[in-house]
Amino acid sequence: MNTPLWDDSEWPPLPRFSGTVRADVCVIGLGGSGLAALEELAERGVNAVGLDAGAVGAGAAGRNGGFVLAGLANFFPAMVAAYGSETAAALYQHTVDEIRRQVAVLPGSIRQTGSLRIAADAAELEACRVHLAALRYHGFAGEPYAGPEGEGLLLPTDGVMQPLRRVRALAGRLRARGGLLYENSPVRKIAPGAVVTDAGTVLCDTVIAAVDGRLEKLFPELSPRVRTARLQMLATAPAPEVSFPRPVYWRNGYEYWQQRPDHTVALGGFRDQALQDEWTSDAEPTEFIQGLLEKFLRGHLQVRAPITHRWAASVAYTADGLPVLEEVAPKVWAVGAYSGTGNIVGALTARAAARLACGQPAEWARLLDAARAHRRKS
């Protein structure tokens, strides 16, 4: 148990880091966000080294639900209320553009099926109507939906991916360009001008730590604002008895599922049913949450296929729903806490950190600052 559905192909291990290497930037974390930072640095001709304590995509980047969603953790009306209309719309537009960019950069990695927000009750159905009205008012795509899954909202710009395959493809692209990536090389110390591992040291001008889950463990100064949670999932053998052409958010996103082209079903959720237990950095599945998932799979989704995988991942949350993009020490940038929406938001935040590390402006960073400033005033 605790092997994700997505780990379905061989991955030749990358080397462990050893010795002493000089680089302009050291990126800690080889998930989707760390690799996005490395891509941005490579495009700017910056000499960079990437390290990970485990394997490429071994964290949440390769263990999530595979959703590709526009927006942030909060639904769009909540973004408008918290961050202001202009800033919320600009943030949302950036995520729409990032989906488009990822589709172009890695053809076939994202299926733009659209996504569904399905209401679990009358109150949520009304919330879906408000959600749709807010999107349309600001010029974004959305449609009312009623179908076999239930009633709610269709978001046509969204989609799904095989998350571990995507991050491995990104790592492959970087290595083909000569990128220096090292697995199984946990960082023991971040010192001025150096990142120290068990077997070596990266001498560098700047550090970008893009680790999402357990970010507050790496930088304790973030702990008042950042908390790590466990997200649990399961998956089945092919289930031709059901058909879910689009990924589904249900009960305000507490439950979520997708069905792959091979008819396997991946389902996650119910974190709120044991909230105190799920605020943890432990990434092992639990009998209680897995039991709720299985009951929902059989009862609500009507899936009869056997369960083949159960797994969990650590992700970090913030109280304001905004990701962390912060210079926590001179030339040390912390990136993470995507609140469960890291596939798109993580890439935007890490690429912004790379630009800032190069002394360049980053519009995404400016918008995050504006969102926080508006929230403080309101």
SSE layout:
Elements (H helix, E strand, L loop, with lengths): L18 E10 L3 H12 L4 E4 L15 E2 L7 H8 L1 H21 L4 E2 L3 E4 L3 H16 L5 E5 L2 E6 L3 E3 L1 H14 L3 E3 L4 E5 L2 E4 L2 E11 L4 H4 L7 E11 L11 E3 L4 E5 L5 E5 L5 H4 L8 H13 L7 E12 L5 E6 L2 E5 L5 H16 L5 H15 L1
Parallel strand pairs: 1-2, 1-12, 2-9, 5-14, 12-19
Antiparallel strand pairs: 3-8, 4-8, 5-7, 6-7, 10-11, 11-12, 13-16, 13-17, 14-15, 15-16, 18-19
Describe the structure.
By secondary structure, the protein is of the alpha+beta class. The protein has helices at residues 32-43, 76-83, 85-105, 122-137, 163-176, 215-218, 275-278, 287-299, 342-357, 363-377, and strands spanning 19-28, 48-51, 67-68, 110-111, 115-118, 143-147, 150-155, 159-161, 180-182, 187-191, 194-197, 200-210, 226-236, 248-250, 255-259, 265-269, 307-318, 324-329, 332-336. It folds into two domains: 19-63 and 163-225 and 320-377, FAD/NAD(P)-binding domain (3-Layer(bba) Sandwich); 112-160 and 227-318, D-Amino Acid Oxidase, subunit A, domain 2 (D-Amino Acid Oxidase, Chain A, domain 2), CATH 3.30.9.10. It contains ten helices and 19 strands. The strands form three sheets. Strands 1, 2, 9, 10, 11, 12, 18 and 19 form an eight-stranded mixed sheet that branches. Strands 6-7-5-14-15-16-13-17 form an eight-stranded mixed sheet, sandwiched between helices. It has a three-stranded antiparallel sheet with strand order 3-8-4. Strand 11 and strand 12 (200-210) form a beta hairpin.
